[in-house]
Recover the amino acids of this structure.
């Protein structure tokens, strides 16, 4: 299903996002990028670098510092026939826009019975491990996952960042496109330079294995991949499944992973209580209960606010904690 | 002037009918227009329904007949709780009611911004109440509109109350038009019981907007003559003398007097208009109550295409 | 643990809440009630009736229409030594205050290392089935449950409304006190008129049973109780557990219910995906997996926005759907 | 005047030291004060540290030495990422940095409201940036402050920029003091490079506040002389000529000239003050870097007492 061509180029995730924004704005002149510091500064991480020069200040707009109206204006722009791609500078500040995202954007199609398409893609970096100030690192996907009408997309590779972002921008539904801060420069892989679309709702198998399945998304895919490698040496064969999109959810691939391995670890960076891992476990309960050989293990952030710098590494799941959970579910430790 | 008056008396009649539907258990909570007729109808008449958009709060839809019969028809559907009530189809350029107060102001600014970028002629008018101006959305949006020079007209319908909260509890600002200083845009204060004055203020603002001169904030001052909604008991908090004084300036009476003065009004003529409005409303109610609805509609329009999980839920639901 | 006295009076839930606000304001003069229409109007449901007359306009304050600053001002009031009990008129409008509730109130103690106590109780009605306008009926507890630092309390009886609200107001931590609209007048029971405190984190067994356990909270307790009655006639013995507080969660009682019955239904009104039922299932997975005889059944709202009036009854879980789920988990139907 | 100058040069030195700590990998992202010294120190000197509270944004804590040594000591801890950095202990009446812009304004209004109710003498001063005025929280809070007659002083530090966004992109308002019209409260515009002018404006506002005359909005106009934060590259967007012109009005130089004119300044004296500041900062850094921290602190202070789930998580963590 994934459309690719032959030309590849190694990019980090940030470059892939920038490259995709250029391509999509070039492809469709209805696409508009706006937000705080996205113009002359090219975004605080340079994700929107070069867009203002190339596409002009009608389509690439530095806004006042007000997330509520950044999100809210996207509703009106969509109704005017535009394809809004607003940036929320850090996901923690999407709280200021929560009433517009959860209360309005997510419901516009439903409440108008599709009078209006809502081709809005909200891009926002998030996630910890890089010593950002308070409220810059929070993983909030679960808080949005309980809001019907949104799609929630979390790329874990540069190639997926391109393929999923292009799909998001072309999707007539609102998409939260959540970019892992820690992966911006660290994650680097081969990206198709031509048209490349990754469909939503199709998980990606990152490592094959048959003893334990790790189900995860975003930067935790990278950590899980590393854990899987280490565990192979211990003789545990670990499958790593990257969900890619939480909504829509690829239940089939989850079921398949449970059926193959019988033992599952779910890894998330968010706090444990009601993080999206809970939904994965509930879905397994619904669809693959009888294939489980042991309780699913959760590896999560703790039920504390995201802590300040010196405590961060204790909060964020790491390779060790993932390995421990895999060993635990495999019955190698108790 | 006669067409403004016709729509004003029509709006009050429509509104009363919807109010009564609720009392009969045939409609949900709704908010009567009483007192705001001049603001809504006056403003609507200053706009171009073929090019301009209106984003209402919730009290105004009965006064937008000028924007097409779809508006009232769908508002009746909306009031009885039918999902199609939220879909006001083209060519009517009117959005459905907004319940989450002031969230419509950012939408209006975005729409005006998009129209400007698309080079569309026309502008956007958004209504909000005096109480709703206390929400961050109002300020954020007006401020952004100023920066964008967006062709948007923000009309604050100051009817003196936000449910039980009087304007002196909303703000110490001298008046709501003064808030325009915070955005660097023109602020206009107009008598909201005088439809012609509202018409002129909106017509001015519209000229500026379509000429590229940016947004205008208009405060139209009137008084809420009825309860907040069908669920409200205003006798708990509205001072009788204040209400009685306001009734002296009932916008419909004000206009009737003026028309009489100009020889444009007869009792008969008004009765005929009311009879037409009544018949028109009757048709809308009959159509709305006859509108089919399959329970499965619950699952439509969440996305353009349902997710697998929605498909599964719908299947379970239909079993 | 529940402190009660002998004097009882039958009240509906609204009366119990009003009675408790009177009692707590009488007990502690630091308590302040404020919000939209809470003063002269006594609240749009009359929950705050009589408070203004009795305690005066310094302590019972009609605010401007701005949920963000209603919640945000509570932070400052708390720091000034007050005990703020703001009302958000409907929980759907807490979205406008989400940045203050999730970003500030929930974190104030943590980020100041307890320099400030945060004895804030946010009261808010929610829940469907009563034909309210849009955004008045949404069940949003799950969106708050992923935010560490908050406590989330949902009474299902008038007596609990009193006991839990009194506990909330005296708790030095922020509490979301969520009142079921549909139960305001419909739920009526005996309420102790004197001091009555119900501790957080202790679920309540509403019906005893041994075949299937229904785990639920808020108005769904009433529905589940009715379902349990009907099912008894079919020969299924159903236990109903009212969680009362989602945070803190009474894991022990959940485990006990699973151990007793082996079969579980979780009922919630929120949309299915990542509703709090998911967390209950994940908790059962963690703590009582081996006691499960069948997958846990979820009865939920659907993954659609909360619909308008004519579709409402199809969305909201009802006794029938609960009974079906119980029969399914009991293996009586498939 | 000399004590204001002393704190101003101290604040710049402290700020530079924290900036350098980041460069050496010993501290996290931080925002230098350069250009705002006169606003922060001038305002602080007009307050009564025993009765008044200050709620900063994030750039101001180095200039609040007058509120007690705890402020800088904890700010250094905060900057190196130690959780105790968020706890500025009594008697210092200063809140920790606020990262979520403008959310501190509602807090300040609530605090002032509570102090008023408690009959406390004193007032609350809250700082926010020009960019932060675009957030709904600013408007909602100032509007409420007006209604409450709350003893609060809202100081907009207009340093020309919000990261790369210049003030003309924030608003079309004539200036930020004008926004006071939206709230019906006094608005004052003051030269933020002139510490004495700031001092006087804040002193006036304070007199009104403690006399029960309500809030004041003060805009202090200055220019950001450094990068936004350690993570910023202002050469991408700050026009060189504008920056050079602003440097002519460096608030420290402005005050030095004035003191010289009045015979209150010598090179030696300033060097001595700087040496003291340097030593004081050195102590703060040494203490901060020596502050113990157990990883288990992660779990403390979520609630007054941990929930059972937190206890379980902590036990798992400690294994
Ligand atoms: C965000 C939000 N908060 C609260 C409410 C509840 N509410 C409905 S109408 C209303 C008063 C609105 O007053 P105003 O804006 O003056 O409009 P009016 O009803 O007077 O036309 C309130 C508080 C709401 N619908 N939305
Ligand atoms: C709610 C919120 N949105 C966005 C940001 C990201 N951000 C940090 S500082 C800043 C600019 C602030 O400008 P201003 O208020 O003028 O203060 P200054 O830094 O100039 O002192 C932005 C956008 C944030 N911290 N909080
Ligand atoms: Mg009003
Ligand atoms: Mg600034």
């Amino acid at each position: 299903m994934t459309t690719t061509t032959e030309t590849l180029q190694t990019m980090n995730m940030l470059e892939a996002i920038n490259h995709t924004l250029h391509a999509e704005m070039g492809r469709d002149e209805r696409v508009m990028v706006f937000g705080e510091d996205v113009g002359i500064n090219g975004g605080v991480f340079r994700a929107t670098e070069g867009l203002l020069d190339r596409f002009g200040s009608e389509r690439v707009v530095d806004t006042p510092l007000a997330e509520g109206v950044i999100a809210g204006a996207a509703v009106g722009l969509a109704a005017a026939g535009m394809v809004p791609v607003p940036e929320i500078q850090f996901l923690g500040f999407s709280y200021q826009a929560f009433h517009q995202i959860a209360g309005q954007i997510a419901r516009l199609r439903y409440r108008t019975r599709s009078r209006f398409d809502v081709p809005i893609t909200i891009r926002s970096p998030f996630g910890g491990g890089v010593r950002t100030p308070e409220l810059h690192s929070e993983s909030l996907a679960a808080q949005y996952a309980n809001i019907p009408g949104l799609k929630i997309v979390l790329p874990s590779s540069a190639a997926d960042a391109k393929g999923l972002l292009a799909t998001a921008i072309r999707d007539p539904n609102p998409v939260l496109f959540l970019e892992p801060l820690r992966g911006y420069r660290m994650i680097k892989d081969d990206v198709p330079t031509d048209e490349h679309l990754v469909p939503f709702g199709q998980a990606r198998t990152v490592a094959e294995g048959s003893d334990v399945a790790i189900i995860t998304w975003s930067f935790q895919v990278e950590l899980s991949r590393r854990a899987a490698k280490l565990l192979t040496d211990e003789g545990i064969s670990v499958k790593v499944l990257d969900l890619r999109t939480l909504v829509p959810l690829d239940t089939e691939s989850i079921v398949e992973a449970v059926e193959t391995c019988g033992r599952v670890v779910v890894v998330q960076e968010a706090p444990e209580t009601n993080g999206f891992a809970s939904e994965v476990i509930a879905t397994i309960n619904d669809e693959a209960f009888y294939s489980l050989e042991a309780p699913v293990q959760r590896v999560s952030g703790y039920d504390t606010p995201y802590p300040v710098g010196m405590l961060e590494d204790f909060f964020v799941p790491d390779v060790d904690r993932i390995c421990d959970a895999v060993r635990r579910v495999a019955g190698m430790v108790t | 002037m006669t067409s403004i008056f016709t729509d004003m008396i029509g709006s009050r009649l429509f509104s009363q009918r919807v109010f009564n539907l609720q009392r009969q258990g045939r409609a949900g909570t709704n908010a009567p227009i009483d007192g705001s007729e001049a603001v809504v109808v006056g403003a609507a008449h200053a706009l171009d329904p073929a090019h301009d958009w209106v984003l209402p709060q919730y009290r105004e839809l009965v006064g937008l007949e000028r924007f097409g019969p779809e508006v009232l028809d769908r508002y009746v559907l909306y009031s009885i709780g039918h999902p199609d009530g939220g879909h006001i189809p083209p060519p009517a350029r009117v959005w459905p009611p907004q319940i989450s107060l002031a969230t419509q102001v950012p939408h209006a600014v975005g729409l005006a911004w998009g129209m400007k970028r698309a080079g569309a002629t026309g502008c956007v008018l958004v209504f909000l109440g005096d109480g709703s101006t206390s929400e961050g959305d109002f300020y954020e949006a007006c401020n952004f509109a100023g920066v964008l020079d967006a062709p948007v007209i923000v009309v604050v319908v100051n009817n003196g109350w936000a449910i039980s909260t009087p304007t002196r509890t909303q703000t110490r600002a001298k008046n709501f038009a003064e808030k325009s200083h915070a955005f660097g845009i023109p602020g206009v204060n107009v008598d909201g019981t005088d439809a012609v004055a509202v018409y002129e203020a909106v017509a001015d603002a519209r000229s500026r907007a379509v000429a590229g001169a940016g947004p205008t904030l208009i405060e139209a001052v009137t008084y809420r003559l009825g309860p907040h909604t069908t669920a409200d008991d205003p006798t708990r908090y509205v001072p009788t003398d204040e209400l009685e004084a306001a009734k002296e300036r009932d916008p419909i009476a004000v206009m009737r007097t003026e028309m009489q003065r100009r020889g444009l009004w007869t009792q008969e003529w008004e009765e005929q208009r009311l009879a037409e409005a009544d018949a028109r409303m009757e048709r809308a109610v009959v159509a709305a109550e006859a509108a089919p609805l399959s329970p499965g509609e619950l699952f439509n329009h969440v996305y353009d295409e349902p997710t697998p999980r929605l498909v599964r839920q719908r299947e379970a639901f239909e079993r």
Q: What stands out?
A: Chain A is about 35% helix and 20% strand. Residues 210 and 260 of chain A are 6 Å apart (CA to CA). Chain A touches chain B through 43 residues (CB under 8 Å). Residues 13-27 of chain A form the longest helix (15 residues).
